[in-house]
Amino acid sequence: MASHSHQEPWLLENGNLKNLTKEMRHGPVAMAAPPTTCHPRRSERTILAQSYGFGRPWVFALSLLGLVPLAERVSFLTEQIAYYTGPTAGGLLNATCGNATELIIALFALRDHKIELVKYSLLGSILSNLLLVLGTSLFCGGIYNLRSEQKYDRRQADVNSLLLLLALLCHLLPMLFRYAGASAALTADPTLQLSRASSIVMLIAYAAYLVFQMWTHRQLFEATEESEGDDDFPEETAVIGFWSGFAWLVGMTLIIALLSEYVVGTIQEASDSWGLSVSFLSIILLPIVGNAAEHAGAVIFAFKNKLDISLGVALGSATQIAMFVVPLCVIVAWIMGINMDLDFNILETGSLALAIIATAFTLQDGTSHYMKGMVLLLCYVVIGACFFVSRPPLKQGNVINSGLKMTAEAVFRA
């Protein structure tokens, strides 16, 4: 029969693998911030709301708010640990833990067989980084630096653009294969196998990207940082010990897992109560709230005319999600016996394709101005409006199964 991804077409920042410093990632204000300042009251309110039977939409809203400070503190703690593990292991740790919220939400959704929620949340994170974060950075940086031309290193942007185009190809082929087939019943299993094979290829490509970025061509990603060293800030050192940082990291990750479970379990009730589609909540609202701290950091460095750092955060995160988190979820679902493929349906895949192409064209000349950022932001607004008015049926599989049944009956009658 058709795979679950055809039947349920729902749809993972700090993806930059560079070992960014604390000042580069959070600004100078966060340098002396202790790891305990994560606003635990929001998490406590969420747990109390769940325990005392508050409305499930309220549990969803409080869970989203609680994820904001927790995600920022996890990012801070991974950077502290990176001082002890070295740049290579630290860079990988930064990249992995930076997307912890998206990854945990996806795993909980997979456990509940909510393939549609997995796809929507991952797609939303990619679109948010490429259009919202990058667009806001270019727009704000261009407005603030009207009298000076903003420049960045094209080589880093070119590498990320190529990987994003490869990810787009791996998403397009399963969808085109399904539409080119005679019927959904005949193409369901081959589409699933193609998606799994493509996921393995994407993971291999991402592993090669890690080697390229952290070993063989590391100078491409560090040259700009060294040449633009800021003397206004003192040399940075770790403010907490390794085991202390590791213990806090484990504890906060567990709290994120708890809140993520609440998000996955209450998103449908929030959708029904607020009159918003699950696709809009997952693609637009969830990435904005969950990555607010990192998004703000990218915009701050655009104000400082440090676009290479802003590009590293936005493009690096989008690349990691598209090339690592998405195929990883497909493989994990395969292991769990769940049929998840890379066919995100035509509307979602088309939005992803236009976002990647628009971003590639925007970054092709190595210079920036506010008009480029405005165009990217307007693209995000249009896509958000599209998913705001789009309300796909919750059980798309019933529609497909009905169509297959009608087709089979017509064949037998003939």
Question: What order do the helices and strands come in, and which of them pair?
Answer:
Elements: H1 4-7, H2 22-26, H3 40-51, H4 56-85, H5 87-98, H6 100-111, H7 115-144, E1 150-151, H8 154-180, H9 184-216, H10 218-227, H11 242-274, H12 278-290, H13 292-303, H14 307-335, H15 345-362, E2 367-368, H16 370-389, H17 396-413
Antiparallel strand pairs: 1-2
Helix pairs in contact: 3-4, 4-5, 4-11, 6-7, 6-11, 7-12, 7-13, 7-14, 7-15, 7-16, 8-9, 8-14, 8-15, 9-10, 9-14, 13-14, 15-16
Describe this structure in words.
- By secondary structure, the protein is mainly alpha-helical.
- Helix content is 77%, strand content 1%.
- It contains 17 helices and 2 strands.
- It has helices at 4-7, 22-26, 40-51, 56-85, 87-98, 100-111, 115-144, 154-180, 184-216, 218-227, 242-274, 278-290, 292-303, 307-335, 345-362, 370-389, 396-413, and strands at residues 150-151, 367-368.
- The chain is globular and about 55 Å long.
- Mean pLDDT is 76; it is low at 1-38, 223-233 and 394-414.
SSE order, one letter for each helix or strand:
HHHHHHHEHHHHHHHHEHH
The chain-level mean pLDDT equals 76
Using the CA coordinates, give the radius of gyration: 21 Å
Low-pLDDT residue intervals, each spanning 5 or more residues: 1-38, 223-233, 394-414
How many beta-strand elements?
A: 2
> What's the tally of helices?
17
Q: How many angstroms separate the termini? A: 22 Å
Helix content: over 70%
Major beta sheet, strand line-up: 1-2
Derived structural class: mainly alpha
The 3D shape can be described as: globular
**What portion of the residues fall into strands of 2 or more residues?**
under 5%
The biggest sheet, with number of strands, parallel, antiparallel or mixed sense and barrel status, is:
2 strands, antiparallel
**Multimer state:** single chain
